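Please fill in the sequence for the structure shown.

STRUCTURE ENCODING:
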């Protein structure tokens, strides 16, 4: 029996327009509206647990460190995600904690805690660099390179107070840039943080309660998780592994991303004999080493 047109007319929940469905169960007027609604539902799910994802956890930590979510202004958050993902890829996957190759961190050009300035998370203010270099920098800065905010520019609305929970900070992040955040979760499937993944894997063994695992330090969880991974390997299961990049490989990639002319791929030894100066150059310093009789400065 065919539905009458008057009874069949519905309001599409996506575009709010009226339409006549071909079947009583049809909810949206077109496939475009159906897919748009699905993306919105996915974005809502990501928003609820954003702080538990690897990127979200890192972003919450950065806003806590700066004391404000305004460090997210002036750029597309998708571009920030790409820098973060680049750093993750440089560090490899399933690399043993005993691996001697250097790890990489996201280093600020204009520091977060400089006097009279707060370095933002603008991709042009960030460099993927070895951890030993990043930690040696402290607050060294030429007071002109990078992207930063003045304390006078900060608004109390976006202040991140120490007593705020991770979820509350995440909510401020979403509220600060709802359009950018929605675009991010539509384009990228954010994965759970490694801590959340470790707890989930360890819970499946039946040896621990959720409360026991949540109170463990990150280092303790890593130790337990590595034992679990070793057990899996002895059972004949393959574990995917991606080796870390070398500092020189990361340096070349960052030169390309930041559009900075540096030591070329033919000068491997030149880079390592002047490594700190090369990284300083990416942070706004002058490069004075010779490469093929050319002086960079």
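FILLED IN BY: designer on duty
SEQUENCE:
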């Amino acid at each position: 029996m065919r539905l009458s047109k008057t009874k069949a007319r519905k309001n599409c929940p996506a575009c709010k327009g009226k339409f006549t469905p071909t079947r009583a169960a049809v909810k949206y007027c077109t496939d475009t509206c159906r897919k748009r609604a699905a993306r919105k539902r996915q974005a809502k799910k990501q928003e609820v647990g954003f702080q538990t994802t690897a990127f979200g956890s890192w972003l919450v930590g950065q806003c806590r460190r700066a004391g404000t979510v305004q460090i997210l202004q002036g750029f597309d958050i998708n571009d920030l995600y790409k820098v973060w993902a680049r750093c993750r890829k440089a560090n490899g996957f399933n690399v043993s904690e005993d691996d001697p190759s250097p790890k990489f961190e996201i280093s600020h050009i204009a520091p977060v805690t400089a006097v009279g300035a707060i370095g933002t998370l603008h991709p042009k203010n960030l460099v993927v660099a070895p951890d030993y270099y990043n930690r040696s920098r402290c607050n060294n800065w030429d007071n002109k390179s990078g992207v930063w905010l003045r304390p006078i520019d900060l608004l109390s609305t976006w202040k991140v107070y120490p007593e705020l929970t991770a979820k509350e900070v995440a909510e401020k992040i979403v509220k600060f840039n709802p359009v950018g955040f929605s675009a991010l979760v539509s384009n990228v499937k954010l994965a759970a943080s490694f801590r959340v993944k470790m707890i989930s894997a360890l819970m499946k063994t039946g040896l621990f309660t959720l409360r026991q695992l949540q109170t463990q330090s990150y280092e303790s969880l890593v130790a337990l998780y590595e034992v679990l991974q070793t057990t899996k390997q002895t059972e004949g299961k393959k574990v995917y592994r991606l080796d870390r990049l070398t500092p020189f490989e990361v340096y070349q990639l960052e030169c390309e991303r930041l559009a900075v002319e540096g030591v070329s791929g033919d000068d491997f030894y030149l880079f390592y004999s002047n490594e700190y100066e090369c990284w300083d150059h990416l942070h706004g310093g002058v490069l004075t080493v010779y490469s093929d009789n050319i002086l960079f400065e």
